[in-house]
Amino acid sequence: MAEIKALDKEVIESSKAACSLAMQRIINASRYDKSDVAEYLGLSTVALDRRMRGAVSFAIEEVMLICRLMDIPLADAMKIADMSDEEFQNAWIYQWRRQNFAKCVANLEVKEGLTQAKIAEMCGYTQGWISRILSGKGKLIG
To answer: What residue spans of the chain are helical by DSSP H?
Structure first.
C-alpha cells in the first residue's frame, strides 16, 4: 500500500512538473509579457513565476485560461512538456506562422473578396497548398 501511495505521489509530482514546464514554455514563447499573463489570470507576477518554476502547481482553470489566451488546444499544450527544446521551438514557430497566415487569408477573403484559389494564385501556390497549411497538415516555411 505504501508503494502505491509513493508511486501515486511520484506520478502527481511528475505531472505537476510537466504542466509547469509546458506553461513556462508557452508563456515565454508567446507575444505576451509575463505581467500581462499574470493579470489575465488574476495573479501577481511573483505568483506566476512560482507556478512556472513548479514551486506551486497551476490550477486546471489557469492552464485552460492560458491555452485560451494563446489560442492553442489543451491537448497540444500538454504535449509540449514532452518535447525537446528544439522540437518545441520548431512546433511553436510553425503554429504561429500558420495562425498569422490564417488571419491574412481571412482578411483577404473578407476585405478584398478574394477566394482561396485566387490568393493561392497570387502567392504562386495551389489552393490545396493553402488548405493543407490552414488545416495544419503542412508546414509554412519561411
So the answer is: 2-29, 34-41, 45-53, 60-70, 74-79, 85-111, 116-123, 127-135
